[in-house]
């Protein structure tokens, strides 16, 4: 029988571990041609998540495994760990809070049966979410697709079922700063989108603050776009050209009016303007250099402290 691994990143999800297990188990009672295993990744939780994981693995050693990190490495690191430890023929990525309904799994299996390499769930409404957040999210997708040539789908979550082949491809991308949605788009393969209604998380609270999301968005850009660097070059050239034209204009008017003084205000404005622009540009370039530095160190993406997996 073929196996489906369900990778679940967990950060302070003590109240969700068991309900998720039960919901998944219920779905698989109706599925006869696949066995399943949930692979929880405890991303350095500070609550009782790890205790809950040991407990559930003790009760269901065949269908519940876990890896536990030495600290919080972030969701992207947890996803990487889960994918790299998975060995199922199909792998599902799912949030711990039941916002990714396990009931979609049979439909995902159907999609794979139709020959797709990946079946993704797309949220069709964003009920229960602050409107500012939805607006920013829409803007993010618009801009990032334009700038990077990726095809991120509006509302496309990282709730996916993927073939082993696609997972192995994703693992070949060895960057430290991982932007999973971008990686999924970059590796290609055929994705089928199925739709679902937004649901509230069953317990606990969202780990994302507004600034956390803004940082996530910026990371996404820098991981996949060199467009900001190119924009810097254009901006620099434009300012140089403007300064050159301004110099000619000043020179001509000085000749005409017999060297009338223009005043130091202009000079101060120009100095401030140039200063501001330069600092911004150095910031953008610096951001890429910092990235290079980080990637170059080749640090591990996560550090495991404990695991139920047999080595
Ligand atoms: N998560 C994680 N590490 C983190 C933050 C979040 O593993 O540092 C997990 C979290 O436990 C959940 C998933 O990522 O399973 C999505 O997080 P959350 O529900 O807070 O995000 P939202 O649904 O609000 O976008
Ligand atoms: Mg959630």
How do the helices and strands line up, and which of them pair or pack?
Elements: E1 2-10, H1 17-29, E2 34-42, H2 49-59, E3 64-69, H3 75-85, E4 90-93, H4 105-113, E5 118-123, H5 131-148, E6 156-163, H6 164-172, H7 180-186, E7 191-196, H8 210-224, H9 227-256, H10 264-297, E8 304-307
Parallel strand pairs: 1-2, 1-4, 2-3, 5-7
Antiparallel strand pairs: 3-8, 4-6, 5-6
Bound molecules: uridine-5'-diphosphate and magnesium ion (MG).
Query: Helix share of residues?
Result: 40-55%
- The tally of structural domains comes to 2
The CATH architecture designation of the largest domain is Alpha-Beta Complex
User: How far apart lie the N and C ends?
Assistant: 23 Å
Biggest sheet details: 8 strands, mixed
Describe this structure in words.
The chain is an alpha/beta fold and about 300 residues long. It has 2 domains: about 1-130 and about 155-205, Spore Coat Polysaccharide Biosynthesis Protein SpsA, Chain A, CATH 3.90.550; about 225-295. About 50% of the residues lie in helices and about 15% in strands. It has 10 helices and 8 strands. The chain has an 8-stranded mixed sheet with strand order 7-5-6-4-1-2-3-8, with helices on both faces. Helix 1 links the parallel strand 1 (about 1-10) and strand 2 (about 35-40). Helix 5 runs parallel beside helix 8 and helix 9 packs antiparallel against helix 10. The protein is elongated, with a radius of gyration of 25 Å. The model has no long low-confidence stretch (mean pLDDT about 85). Bound molecules: uridine-5'-diphosphate (UDP) and magnesium ion. Uridine-5'-diphosphate binds near residues 10 and 74. Uridine-5'-diphosphate (UDP) binds near residues 13 and 206.
